[in-house]
Amino acid sequence: MTRKVYIFLFIIIAQVKVVAQDSQFSQFYASSLYLAPSFAGSTDGDRIATNYRNQWPSITRAFQTYALSYDHYFPHLNSGVGVLMYREQAGTSNLATTNVGVAYSYKFKLNSGWRISPGLSFFYTQRSIAFDDLVFGDELENPETEGTAEIPILERKSDIDASFSVLAFNNNFWLGFTWDRMLKPNRSLTGDIKQDPYKFTLYGGSKFTILDRYSWSSGQSLSPSFLFKMQDQYSQLDLGLYWYQMPLVIGVWYRGIPVFKDLTSNDALAFLVGFKVDQFQIGYSYDLTISKLSGFTGGSHEISVVFQFNQGVTDREKRKMIPCPTI
Q1: 203-205-209 Cα angle (round to 5)
Q2: Predicted TM-score of the model (pTM)
Q3: β-pairing, 199-206 with 173-180?
Q4: Residue 127: other Cβ atoms inside 10 A
Q5: CATH number at residue 279
Q6: How far apart are CA 84 and CA 194, in angstroms?
Q7: In angstroms, rounded to a whole number, what is the distance separating the alpha carbons of residues 45 and 308?
Q8: Which domain covers residue 227, as residue numbers?
Q9: Does the residue 327 lie in any domain?
Q10: What is the pLDDT of residues 244-253, one digit of tens each?
Q11: Residue 208 falls inside a structural domain
């Protein structure tokens, strides 16, 4: 019973106190335009990515997130352009957040071998709810009456938003920063002013080959990486490791901040398996809940599919690619 109360309180905090806390993906490099506009045009041509996350399926109508993106690299302009759509919904009343945006990035080459890629994106954002699906106390006390005496809230609220990012990388390392919710869009469905708080994300890692002396292990690599984000008074740290041997990718992540002993300090362990064949890749991950909600959420399932096409530029134009994982 106590743990069910924890679940209830956590959902209330996530949906009300934080005011539409942002969605998240465990496979954040497979949803790269959602992570940062700097990733727009990070291939040598065109890329389409789709993502689906089912969080806490043991809870009725819990969080589900969908994302679809497309981006293209223009070699003569050293620029990338992309479009992104994502939607999260939860609850029997379909409380939903929908975003549609465009992203742009520019690629700088430094003499030291590093590349710098600033990026900017703009979004049309909307929050909505099916008010007629809500059930209030007066309806339970007087089931014979039709409707409720509660004052209807807004069924949807729209606004605009922007994100800025900068990404630095060379052959073996990458480090990035993203500032989301720059315009602090108003998401209140009651007519009040309830703005989304700023969200700051820092991420990075390295990639190195292993056992190069053996021909059978050619192309085998390890990629330790991290992601840290803050929004309002909430923060989250992800630490992980990818192992890659064509065509297989395996990863494991720890999510949480163990020095704090609250409900979500130790959140989850995420396990990933993926396959990369030519220009196609697919990944599946499962988040094992290790917080006090363990045993009641059903974890989280996530699937990503990425397809690259029209790849390849001339040797004169060929550039260094970001070494971070793509799943």
Answers
A1: 160
A2: 0.85
A3: antiparallel
A4: 25
A5: 2.40.160.40
A6: 25
A7: 7
A8: 2-142+156-309
A9: no
A10: 998 999 999 9
A11: yes
